[in-house]
Amino acid sequence: MSGNVSISQEENGKVSQVIRMGTRKSQLARIQTDSVAGRLKELYPDIHLEIVAMSTIGDKILDTALSKIGEKSLFTKELENALERNEVDIVVHSLKDLPTSLPPGFTIGAVLQRENPHDAVVLHPKNAGLTLDSLPEKSVIGTSSLRRAAQLKKRFPQLEFANIRGNLNTRLKKLDEKDDYAAIILAAAGLKRMGWESRISQILGPEDCMYAVGQGALAVEVRAQDKDILEMVSVLHHPDTVLRCISERAFLKQLEGGCSVPVAVHTEVKGSMLYLTGAVYSLDGADCLKDTMQTVVEIDNKVSESAQECVHVGVTANNVSSSALEAAEKLGMDLANALLNKGAKDILTTARKLNDAR
After folding, report:
1. 97, 119, 208, 287: which one is catalytic?
2. Which helix (H) or strand (E) holds 355?
3. Distance between CA atoms of 357 and 159, rounded to whole angstroms?
4. What Cα–Cα distance (Å) separates residue 227 from each residue in 15, 18, 208, 224, 238?
5. Distance between CA atoms of residues 206 and 157, nearest Å
6. Global pTM value
7. Model confidence band, residue 43 (pLDDT cutoffs 50, 70, 90)
8. Where in the numbering of this chain does the Porphobilinogen deaminase C-terminal domain appear (predicted)?
9. Which of 100, 143, 188, 205 has the fewest CB atoms below 10 angstroms from its CB?
């Protein structure tokens, strides 16, 4: 294995490799990291995994809306620093936290099978049995996401929207213990991974609220030059998820969108077709540009020989058909260009300015 991976000697003389996994300290991050560790242990019974937990800027600044902090790598910077300093060998992230351009020297070596990518409505206990449609007028919905707020304001004009920050535990506590919010909107995937599926009162379909780029998928980030580790984690890639997320990330990158602008997507693989719907919104949801395009992603089993030519929006997937990866990336760029030609730039620039002025 590469020189920077520690090796430990077992009592029986067997040499075992130690892989250090970096994670955020939040309960959800730990659960996600443990699930990836479990998969790796199944595949490579001889490896030893050490989990190194750390706090990130996003975990420390809890009183400001994410879109206001304006830092693209809020939840990833400290973890990447540890990767760079060789204190950890792999880092597990929610893919939606990873910017579309990674710092030099890093790559996403695995995108795991996606959990439900949709958003979920979690009601205050007193509103049990209701939906966003049936909540009383002027009910306050908590969400810190500009993307969710923009779509839901347009779809449910009778409701009000207010910021809510904190990790999942904190947000649920704020909802249940105070009377500030009638409901909050959270990613279904996180609730499911935490074992809180019973709190989901409504899953929002694409007609109500399209999801964030990469939502529901876990990503394993590694040092790009660690070929052994890259190869080791690559078996975790889920081809359909990889293709969907590459098209979504390429769409966002081409639009130059980030946390501070409302951009939403919806993807589907049907047979050999990949469908991508993408949209940009003004902050109040009144202006919206939305379109759907599709491409053929034949899994031709022709995989890239050289790792160099196989990085697509930060993702290295040498074991996935290279023509399918290229088609997925092109689809995202083409859809973004179609929206830019219709005036998406103006909507995004205005949204960014308004958000900065808040």
Report:
1. 97
2. helix 344-357
3. 23
4. 20, 16, 43, 7, 19
5. 17
6. 0.89
7. very high
8. 243-302
9. 205
Please state the rounded mean pLDDT for residues 183-212.
Answer: 96
Runs of H (alpha helix) within 10-56 = 27-43
Q: Six-digit token pair at 172?
A: 């649920």
Tokens of 263: 């951009």
Is 133 catalytic? The answer is: no
Cα–Cα distance between 232 and 17 in angstroms, integer?
12
List 15's β-bridge partners, or say none: 9
Handedness of CA 255, 259, 260, 264 (dihedral sign): positive
Tell me the domains of the chain and their CATH numbers: 18-116+213-357 (3.30.160.40), 119-203 (3.40.190.10)
Distance CA 107, CA 104 (A): 8
Q: What is the CA radius of gyration of the chain?
A: 21
**DSSP annotation string for 69-99:** H--TTTTTHHHHHHHHTTS-SEEEEEGGGS-
Other Cβ atoms less than 10 A from the Cβ of 193: the count is 21
**In 141-217, which residue ranges form alpha helices assigned H by DSSP?**
146-155, 168-177, 188-193
For 114-138, the pLDDT digits (tens) are 999 999 999 999 999 999 999 999 9
Q: How far apart are CA 90 and CA 302, in angstroms?
A: 27
The H or E element containing residue 253 is: helix 239-255
Which pLDDT belongs to residue 15?
Answer: 46
- What does the alpha-carbon distance between residue 158 and residue 291 come to, in Å, rounded to a whole number? 26
